[in-house]
Amino acid sequence: MKKIITYIILLIFSLSFAQKIAYVDTQYILKQMPQYQQSEQRLNSEAKKWQEEIIKQQSTLEKLRVAFENEKILLTEDQQKTRVAVIDSTEKVLNDFIEKKFGTNGESISLRVNLVKPLQDQIWNAINTVATKDKYNIIFDKSSDLIMIFTDSKYDITDTVLKQLGMGGKDEKEASKSKSSRAKVSDSKAATSKTTPETKEAKIKKEEAKTTSEQPKSGYGSKYVPKKNRKTAETETETETKTELEE
């Protein structure tokens, strides 16, 4: 089978020199669709309910087994057979339920197909529209079973298909995420600068500066200490001289 696929790929590429080719990532597109996210939520909700039921049945089965082992010695042969039959029946019901919900053809698979298929149809229609409009001869699906060892981004038309579906392209989404991230970082820095407490060292320096500014300046001619007038100075000098003579 792999040889056949390889042969087909080589044949396609041998003919592609005269043709216009491209590739698209349908899985990426699918995950960007709001309907797909809603479908996933619904599927996860149903799966959670089924898992809870499985756990409940497993607990019941385990209790039956423990009770049988503890009481086996007290039971008659017929009673033992009856208990074993009940245990086997309970285990079969559990296995049937698991297969029904999560088996190869289980409800989880069918539910996913029913939810996703309409969305896949929208994607294929958009791809066909783009192929017709831009005249592509070959379009590969990057997310399919086809192994693409190397892809040149210039052949990627995923953005074009997204826009055809009415959604922004990869570049727009990445730019939006980057802008949102930068805004969050900026807000975080602003909040941090407002709420960061003043350090102990800064408080000490602030108090010292305040104390220094409040202390009056001393010295002759200072605007805080008035100059002594001439008469007062002469009177003080005379008083000092008289005191010295009397002594």
Describe this structure in words.
With 247 residues, the chain is mainly alpha-helical. The chain has a domain at 26-177. 72% of the residues lie in helices and 3% in strands. It is built from nine helices and two strands. Helix 3 (34-71) packs antiparallel against helix 4 (77-102), helix 3 packs antiparallel against helix 5 and helix 5 (107-134) packs across helix 6 (158-164). The longest helix is centred in the N-terminal third of the chain and has 38 residues, at 34-71. The radius of gyration is 44 Å and the shape is flat. The termini are far apart. Mean pLDDT is 74; it is low at 217-228.
How are the secondary structure elements laid out?
Elements: H1 2-15, E1 21-24, H2 26-32, H3 34-71, H4 77-102, H5 107-134, E2 138-141, H6 158-164, H7 170-195, H8 200-214, H9 230-246
Parallel strand pairs: 1-2
Tag the structure with descriptive keywords.
247 residues, two-stranded parallel sheet, 9 helices
Structural class: mainly alpha
How many DSSP H or I helices?
Answer: 9
Number of strand segments: 2
Instruction: Tell me roughly what share of residues is in helical segments.
Output: over 70%
Query: Which stretches are low in confidence, meaning pLDDT under 50 for 5 or more residues running?
Result: 217-228
- Describe the oligomeric state of these chains in a short phrase: single chain
**Elements, N to C (H/E):** HEHHHHEHHHH
Structural shape: flat
Using only C-alpha atoms, the radius of gyration works out to 44 Å
Strand order in the sheet with the most strands = 1-2
Q: The biggest beta sheet, please? A: 2 strands, parallel
Provide the residue-averaged pLDDT: 74
End-to-end separation in angstroms reads 133 Å
Work out the strand percent.
Answer: under 5%
